[in-house]
Amino acid sequence: MPYTCKFCGQEFCAEHRLPENHSCPGLSDYKAKLRSQGKIMDPKNGSVGSEPSLVDKYLPFLSYFKGNVALLLLGLIFIAYVVQIVLRGIDPLLEVSVFFLGPDFVERPWSILSSMFAHGNEFHLFVNAIVLFFFGPELERRVGSRRLIEVYLVAGIVGGLAHVLFMDSYVVGASGAIFGVFGALTMLAPNMRIFLVVIPMKLWVATVIFVVLNVAMIGQGPIASLAHLGGLGIGLLYGLLFKNDGDQKPKSDLLRGGRKRY
Known about the structure:
One of its GO terms (biological process) is proteolysis. GO terms for molecular function: serine-type endopeptidase activity; zinc ion binding. The structure is a single chain. The chain is mostly helical and about 260 residues long. The chain has two domains: about 5-50, no CATH class; about 65-245, Up-down Bundle (Rhomboid-like fold). It is about 55% helix and about 5% strand. It is built from ten helices and six strands. It has a two-stranded antiparallel sheet with strand order 1-2. It has a two-stranded antiparallel ribbon with strand order 3-4. Strands 5-6 form a two-stranded antiparallel ribbon. α6 runs parallel beside α8. About 30% of the residues are buried. Mean pLDDT is about 80; it is low at about 40-50.
């Protein structure tokens, strides 16, 4: 019984029916076409898939963070704090120069980014890490990794600059960026049930409480209230945009946090 090759259209016996057994010219052309489209064919079963990126090929461990960018941000926060400790041991002024955002940010532009991954002390780090661990992955599930990164960075930048421009003092911490994540999620899931310490409440209620507290504490003590409010405002705006474009994945109003499960 003859077999027709789907690549070159010629007929062959059972022994030579496979394209690799009759030097099929059509197979080579087909593979070349796939490569031009960034795709490859599995030689075992003939299935077609995307060609692995350079990152997947040479840094496969980074695939762990696909869909888990929130945890990558969390890891960067801990790494930054370790670097802070090292620099502090060498020279405290070196830590300030690298991580602290201040009125002289034009002379140290890197501090606009580095400051949103650094923290003043272990308690500051712990609180922000807990909030990012629970709210970051939830926002990422709804709007995707790219948008999470965008919210985090823009909220962090605006929040930090709001503080140094209006308060004329130095600031450090991921709070502005994390408040941005919090604000975006508030717009997308205002009725999500969370626990503020041990008190259950809806997410929008917690947001109102945070706004009132931060407005009351502007200029009081070491709390960078303007950074919090600036980041939150950016997050609310992003959340409104995400909600209006309708391009977010529907999820329940149950806060889960943690790593994405496949």
